[in-house]
Amino acid sequence: MKKANAQPRLVKKCKLLLFICIFYYLVTWFTGCPIRFLFGIPCPGCGITRAWLFALRLDFAQAFSYHPLFLLAPLFPVYFLLEEQPAIRRYQWHIGILAGVFLLVWFLRLPFGSLAAQLRQGFLFRTFFTYRKLATGNLSAY
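RE: above sequence
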């Protein structure tokens, strides 16, 4: 009886993953990475898509230069598809450690010298300072 129920569950999960992929594609079609668009800095996952494109060309050196953790990205959808009910509590430590590793790699890859210049390119920064200039009447450069 468990096998008969597994097939519709897998189909539902595949549909959900397809919906998430299409939604993400539509959101990023106009803005690119949403975090880079809003804040002006790359997100912890920036470069994974480019890394996989180079990995598919068997250029692993270039792939690792774009994102050293690109091999971990396919684990999430595979885990989601294969687990009957994802037990986040059971893998709580694994998820925390993995998130910490991603944040550490992201922090080490940030170009600190140009961080202020990158933040100025973000939508939120530009919107705030445009509003501030209009409100104060000071239209000089920020």
